[in-house]
Amino acid sequence: xxxxxxxxxxxxxxxxxxxxxxxxxxxxxxxxxxxxxxxxxxxxxxxxxxxxxxxxxxxxxxxxxxxxxxxxxxxxxxxxxxxxxxxxxxxxxxxxxxxxxxxxxxxxxxxxxxx
Amino acid sequence: xxxxxxxxxxxxxxxxxxxxxxxxxxxxxxxxxxxxxxxxxxxxxxxxxxxxxxxxxxxxxxxxxxxxxxxxxxxxxxxxxxxxxxxxxxxxxxxxxxxxxxxxxxxxxxxxxx
Lengths: 115, 114
Description:
The complex is a heterodimer. By secondary structure, chain A is an all-beta fold. Chain A has strands spanning 4-7, 10-13, 19-25, 32-38, 44-51, 57-58, 67-73, 76-81, 90-97, 104-106, 110-114. Helix content of chain A is 0%, strand content 53%. Classes of the chains: A mainly beta, B mainly beta.
């Protein structure tokens, strides 16, 4: 149990285009999902907390208009990187928390390369 | 503010050696949770353990063991008789409570040589 999937696993796009990443909890409902970003050989940094049916909470320094988050159902959250630029190239990882377990389970991540 | 420090950036051992990963945390909360995650080269984070602030019992799971000491704000992780498959980056993390964000340490890269 507690499986989280992400799609796509990797994406290459041209500068200026938008990219959507999906995060799904496959065998449980997640009222809260989290989006992290990890640059090479660095730790994970939280970008935003996504709650089903409400607006996401962004961490300081993360542009909410650039990184659009939608949590439309208890099993799906999406992150859209709008007008992507090379500096947005990174490893994006989502996690989902099972209510009452106080543990986040992570997806396999999405590698984004913006040319 | 919460902070997690993993002082060791990289550890290299020979197979069958034991390896201990240090984790020191800072928090003003009386209730909190500590975690260890493993990140193999594939990138996916694998949950290893969760410990709440009121449970200082050490835990052993197979070749893995954890030593939680509130007095020194440490939550160290030991791999006994390491294997090549243990090669990965290991992250210690701290969370305030359920539904709260994880604060990660910088990670420790473990390389187990055959």
